[in-house]
Amino acid sequence: MIQLVKQIYQAYGFTDEQSQEVADTLVYTDLIGIASHGVQRLIMYDRNIQNGKVQVHSQPEIVKETDVSAVVDAKFGLGQLNGIYSMKLAIQKAKAHGIGIVTTRNSLHYGIAGYYANLAANEGLIGMSSTNSRPGMVPTHATRAFIGTNPIGFAMPAEPHNFIYDVATTTVPQGKIEVYRKLEKDLPAFWVAKDGNQPVNDITDDETLDQLRDPEAPVGLTPLGGVDEETGSHKGYGLGVIVEIFTGILSMGSISNDITTKDLHSGPSQSFVAIDPGIFGDKDQIIKRFSAYLQEIRDLPAIPGKTVYVHGDKEALAYEDRKQNGIIVDDKTMAEVVNIAKRLGVDYAELIK
């Protein structure tokens, strides 16, 4: 699959290196079990490349910089490439000065936030990344979406594998709704709200679910905590606003409500942070202590039939399983990928076996 995705991006006009980077991010996401942001997203990126929203040959530009910070104008290049560029810049600053913070504007959908945080962790650093997005979240007591799904990714080196935390500040990301629609499965919980506080579960309710892409419609994703303060709705809502601060506000780029699918000149803002644990003490000892702490959590008594995991465990297990047994791609997504390959003249037959 990774070679097929790479050849598709080469056919779009991206360089070999860029195409490999994009393929790595998408297939890695499927390998760790996050199907909502893996190859399933290829159709959305294809649409944005075809309509000109993605500027294939653009190059990100640093527009403001200090020893520990930078603002990057991504100029509507592919989100994954913007993210890799910006996090590498943050890593470079952290290695030189202990910390690096980069905010990026005029970017595009970049996949999972945890991928970029983990780039830093793989370099022995603490990593964080966030992105805003077009309106998806309905703020507490509101009746329409205004804030994006606004995920937060965090990663830190640990044994036997990195700690990786990656969540939307809505109950689920938009991509998970799309996966359930493709699989024709009803939504199992209060993920989508209509008129502020009415749950939507019926996956066949196409008219209502299609309105999730219309910020003026009375339909949106629930914040972490649901729709009421009694269940903690204000917590996910507040986290979404904090992401806006570190992305759109600090970069002077778009906030969620500025981003639309129709405007080719609006795109998300993102943030990338790398911190060297060594600025606080002996790096090896800090990581050793953190690893021991995580193991203590794993060793806690568990509910019968359940396992106590820490963030990153399930992804590590999924990665090992899929590396050995392959990735399962649903039929609708595979059909989309094959159609893209056919249109671009990519010989796909041997690459999907």
UniProtKB/TrEMBL annotation:
It comes from the Bacteria. Keywords: Oxidoreductase. Pfam families: Ldh_2. One of its GO terms (molecular function) is oxidoreductase activity. Coiled coil: none annotated. Belongs to the LDH2/MDH2 oxidoreductase family. This is Putative malate dehydrogenase (Putative). The lineage of its organism: Bacteria, Bacillati, Bacillota, Bacilli, Lactobacillales.
